[in-house]
Amino acid sequence: MESSHTYPKIELILNGTNLTIKDLVDVSRHLQVSIKLDEAAKANMQKSRSWVEQVQKTGTPVVYGVNTGFGSQAIVSINKQKLRELQRNLIMSHSAGTGHPLPIEVVRAAMLLRANTLARGYSGIRVEVVETLLKMLEKGVTPWIPEQGSLGASGDLAPLSHLALVLSDGNENDHDEHSGQAYVYNHDNQNWELTTGKEAMERAEIPRVVLEAKEGLALNNGTQISTALLALSYYDATQLVKLADIAMAMSLEALEGISSAFRPELHGLRPHPGQMESANNIRRLT
After folding, report:
1. Calpha distance 211→123 (Å, rounded)
2. What gap in Å lies between CA 253 and CA 255, rounded to an integer?
3. Residues with Cβ < 8 Å from 83, sequence gap 6 or more?
4. Could you say which of 7, 64, 122, 234 is catalytic?
């Protein structure tokens, strides 16, 4: 991961629809970032949050994950005095992944993807929760997330819960281990250091948030870990394809090969767009 101050600072304004794969790669692999929420996105988020708070206040209508349990407990009504505890318990109970930790760049990509999704304003989460997530990206706090535990299309519930465990705070009886683990970037020795989530956030001077109704579900019910893995792999694969064409063109030049072997009339005989594009690249470079 590039941490040098010589690298141009990456500045993004998220609105939920404008994030590109290149943006994702830049933020995941570089620390010099500034990421803000678009004002219109904030307004949309506040609108949906107001609706959740009205449900929380009145107890009606019955809304899954707001004033009910989860999964098989969906038929269980939750007292409004317990809604905050419900969300924290959801995150703690689902922080049950196993295996080796995911690479830091994958977790950073997932954090940005989750923030981008929440910025659309359909999840009922407070602006300040998403802004805390963005501050973690800016200040070099990356949750330690084990690689196994995703349910695929049903959601990266366990991995994203490990993320939310670092971001969120419990009650005064919470122990440090209930804050998960996180890497925090030490700018003095230019290294990532693994510690508790609580200590990592304290060192970065980022207050952890107490989750309100619906917010635990908003944080862990998504596929951003899977998407991050796919997006970074796709980007790297496209770069490798370009390098392969360049290497082929250089080899052709060195061997004094026949460039006419890459004419479009020949490669157009096969219905493979990638083959035609690669041949065109090699022809242009020789």
Report:
1. 13
2. 6
3. 56, 66, 67, 212, 213
4. 64
Query: Could you tell me the two tokens for 275?
Result: 């083959």
* pLDDT band (50, 70, 90) for residue 8: confident
Q: Under DSSP, is residue 11 helix (H, G, I), strand (E, B) or coil?
A: strand
pLDDT digits 0-9 by tens, 17-44:
999 999 999 999 999 999 999 999 999 9
CB 130 within 8 A of CB 118: yes
Transcribe 58-81 into DSSP letters. Answer: H--S--TTTTB-SGGGTTSB--GG
Residues, the chain: 286
CATH classification (class only), 10-222: mainly alpha
Residue 169 phi/psi, 5° resolution? -110, 150
| Average pLDDT, rounded, for the chain | 95
**64 carries an active-site annotation:** yes
Residue owning tokens 């890497």: 183
**Side-chain-side CA neighbours of residue 270 (13 Å):** 12
Q: What is the pTM of this model?
A: 0.93
In the block, residue with structure tokens 């862990």:
220
d(CA 286, CA 278): 13
Residues 6+ away with beta carbon under 8 Å from 253 = 286
Q: What is the mean pLDDT of residues 59-70?
A: 95
| Domain chopping of the chain, boundaries | 10-222, 238-285
Contact (CB, 8 A) for 68 and 78: yes
Extended strands (E) in the chain: 10-14, 33-37, 98-101, 141-143, 146-148, 168-169, 181-186, 191-196, 209-210
Alpha-carbon gap, residue 29 to 106, rounded angstroms: 9
Query: β-pairing, 168-169 with 209-210?
Result: parallel
Between 72 and 1, name the one with better pLDDT: 72
Helix (H, G, I), strand (E, B) or coil at 258: coil
Please state, for a pLDDT cut of 70, what percent of the chain lies above it: 96
pLDDT over 70 (residue 2): no
